[in-house]
Amino acid sequence: MRCAILADIHANLQALEAVLADAQECGCDEFHCLGDIVGYNANPSECLEIVRALPGACVLGNHDAAAAESEALDHFSPLAKQSLEWTRTQLQSEQKEWLSTLRPMRQIRRYTLVHATLDTPLSWAYIRSSAAAEMSLACQRTQLAFFGHTHVPGIFVQGGGTISMEEGLQLPTDTKLFINAGSVGQSRDGDWRASYLVYDEESAGLWLRRVEYDVRSASQAVLDAGLPKRLAERLFLGQ
Ligand code: ZN
Questions:
Q1: Considering only Cβ atoms within 10 Å of each terminal Cβ, which end of the chain, N or C, has fewer?
Q2: Which residues lie at CB < 5 A from ion ligand 1?
Q3: How far does the centroid of ligand 1 lie from the alpha carbon of residue 238, in Å?
C-alpha cells in the first residue's frame, strides 16, 4: 500500500489538484488527510468535496472544527478569524455536519493520524521542537504517527533528535517517529510549493514531495473572494 499524506489543505484548490496529480504519478492508492481542509483560502467547499471522495481517512483540524460551529472565533488570529467567518458562509450545513463528524485521531493499520498532538489533540498545541514532541511521542501507540498544524515538514524521533527529509528515505523501524507532512495549501517554511508525503508501507520508504502549482490563480481567488490581501500575498512567500 502506498499512501499520500496530506495536511493543511486550507481551501487551496489549485494546490490540492496539483498534489493529487503528483500523488497519482507516484502510484499512491490511498489518500489520508491530517485536517484543516478549510480556512485561509478561497475554495473550502470544493476542497471538502474532493477530500471526502478520496479513498482514505481524514482527521479533524482546528479550522475544520471552527468552520463547523457557530461559536465566537476569538482564540484565532485576526486573519484566521476573518477567513473562518467567510468560510462559514461558503459551506452548506450538510458539509459542516460532515466536518463535525471527523475524529481528532485515527489509527490506520500500523500508524496514527492526528492534526496537532497525540497527548491532547483538541488543545491544538504546536509541535515545533523535539522537546515539545516528547509528550506526544509518549502517548503514541504506533511506531509512526503523522501530523500537521505547524505547516512545516519534519520528523521528530522519540528520545530527542530529528531526521531530515531530503529526497526519499528509509524510515528506521526500531524507534517511534512523529512526522509532519507540511502544508498543501499554505506553506510556512519559506518554500512556496505545496508539501505532502508519500509513504510506502511495505518498504517503509518515505518521500517529502514539493509540488509547484498555479499560485497566481490561488492568490487571485483569495482577493476575488474579498479575503485579506495578506492571505493572498503569503502564498508566494511560503510563510
Ligand atoms: Zn493549518
A1: N
A2: 8, 36
A3: 13
121-163 pLDDT, tens digit per residue, is: 999 999 999 999 999 999 999 999 999 999 999 999 999 999 9
Burial status of residue 222 (CB atoms within 10 A of its CB: 0-12, 13-18, 19 or more): buried
Alpha carbon separation from 214 to 128, 187, 192, 211 (Å, rounded): 29, 14, 11, 10
Contacts of 72 (CB under 8 A, 6+ apart): none
CA–centroid distance, residue 183 to ligand 1 (Å): 7
Ligand 1 mean position to 182 CA, how many Å? 9
**Domain extents for the chain?**
2-237
Residue 195 confidence (pLDDT) above 90 = yes
Q: Residue 64 is which amino acid?
A: D
Global pTM value: 0.97
Residue 70 pLDDT level (bands cut at 50, 70, 90): confident
Mean pLDDT for all residues in the chain:
97
Q: How many angstroms separate the CA atoms of 46 and 69, rounded?
A: 19
The H or E element that residue 84 is part of is helix 78-90
Residues, the chain, total? 239
In DSSP terms, 196 is beta-bridged to: 209
